[in-house]
Amino acid sequence: MSYISELLPHRRDYVDAKKVWRHDVVAGITVGIVALPLALAFGITTGAGARAGLITAIYAGFIAAIFGGSNYQVSGPTGAMTVVLIPIVVKYGTASLAPLGLLAGAMVILMGVTHCGVLIKRVPWPVMEGFTLGIALVIALQQLPSVLAFHSVSGPNTLVTAWRTVRSAISAGVHWSSLLILVITLFVKFAYPKISHALKIKIHIPASFVAIIFSTLLVAIFSIHTPLIGNLPRSLYVHVSLSGSHIGAPALFIGAIQIALLAAIESLLSARVADQMVHVHESAQSYKPNRELVGQGLATVVSSMVGGMPATGAIARTSVNIRSKAASRISAITHAAFLLLVVLVLNPVIAQIPTAALGAVLIGTSYRIAKPANLMEMLKTTRLDATTLLITAVLVVVIGLIWAIAISTAGYFLARTILKRVKR
Predict the structure, then answer these.
(1) Cα 169–chain centre separation
(2) pLDDT per position in the chain (424 positions), as tens?
(3) How far is it, in rounded angstroms, from Cα 64 to Cα 57?
(4) Which residues of 257-279 are buried (b: 16+ CB within 10 A; e: fewer)?
(5) What is the C-alpha to C-alpha distance for residues 46 and 79, in angstroms, rounded to an integer?
(6) 75 — phi, psi (to 5°)?
(7) CB count in 10 Å sphere of residue 57
């Protein structure tokens, strides 16, 4: 019975709910504000549309928060997943997302039921730290279109895409007002905690939330010309048909395997990084990898069946969640509920938020994820560990998450074996 019960939600998930729910609700709203433009952008980038991104963020975010194995993880559409989905959608159309999501979700659930989640613990810590640094760089680079008020210019990898975007934005003319909002938002985000401490403000308000509100009011009061989020789609359900896709069985199976592997790896690594950020990775409060897989698989299945896309744990939103002092999964649940509320009620308010402010918040979050001071200490360890960390970070940016983890892990163990033999 315990084998099954450990994969299911339990009342102990909310044991401290009475103590932390106020902070968690505020943290969830903050994450929701940050998640909103990302959900819209990833849906559009994939080719499925803004509505699909919102559906994924709401449905998958809610289900993964309840059924997943992490108290801090926030799930939804991610940039890494769009890399896998774009070529499939281009070739087979958006109708292929439903069967792909159903099959991939079932595969991820099967991984959890068969206890494949524990394999993630075999990933060495230098690879984990390099993954974290690489993700931080990717997140920051992905915000360039928002802060430059210019469309993304596609390339073979994140680095080339960022370079082409910057070069094209400069050639078209620098959008100084968006850069101004970037600077102001970052200043408020990093200065507010010190100001709050100096003024002895007892009510906790996340710095990201304060920074977004401040920048939004500034743009509205002084009529600063900068791109805003704009109106959102209101319908959150799309009828899908599994027989409506023209994708063949071989392509369906191969695509589902790619999606399932990415969903599993990205979600488990994100959950592990989250535990390290709150220093609970060796405690009873640490994430349950097999339950996390089951939760993410269910989230992808449901999301795909109502017009959404495959989902994963999102390191950027998870980091914002932790930095906003979230203490339980109530925050991730609130994040999904807030997005639903936004679509139904607060559309006119959220429409006024400048996209540059949201990009700035995520750039600030990337800085927090990278932790430069800790990084310098890590680079002073053994040469093998430091080299592995840096190579992993570069590979995440250049070739993607899955191959980066696979190559770095294999290279690390191979190098360690060679060094042991040399010492003998």
Answers:
(1) 26
(2) 466 778 888 888 888 888 888 889 999 998 998 888 888 878 887 888 888 999 999 999 999 999 999 999 999 998 778 878 888 888 899 999 999 999 999 999 999 999 988 887 788 889 988 988 888 888 888 889 989 998 878 777 788 889 999 999 999 999 999 999 999 999 999 999 899 888 888 777 778 888 989 999 999 999 999 999 888 777 788 888 787 788 888 999 999 998 998 899 889 988 988 888 887 766 667 899 999 999 999 999 999 999 999 999 998 899 889 988 898 999 999 999 999 998 888 888 888 989 899 888 888 888 887 878 878 888 888 889 999 999 999 998 898 777 888 899 999 999 999 988 887 6
(3) 10
(4) ebbbbbbbbbbbbbbbbbbbbbe
(5) 9
(6) -115, 160
(7) 32
User: Tokens in use for 272?
Assistant: 């592990």
- Between CA 327 and CA 378 the distance in angstroms is 27
Q: What are the structure tokens assigned to 131, written together?
A: 């993954």
C-alpha separations of 93 from 57, 245, 299 in Å: 21, 8, 22
> The tokens of 161 are what?
């895409």
Quote the tokens at residue 58: 């709401």
Around Cβ 140, how many Cβ atoms within 10 Å? 22
Report CA Rg, the chain. Answer: 21
Q: Provide the number of structural domains found in the chain.
A: 1
Tell me phi and psi for residue 354, to 5 degrees.
-70, 135
Q: Are 303 and 59 in contact (CB under 8 A)?
A: yes
Query: The whole model's pTM is what?
Result: 0.80
In terms of residue numbers, what domain contains 246? 2-423
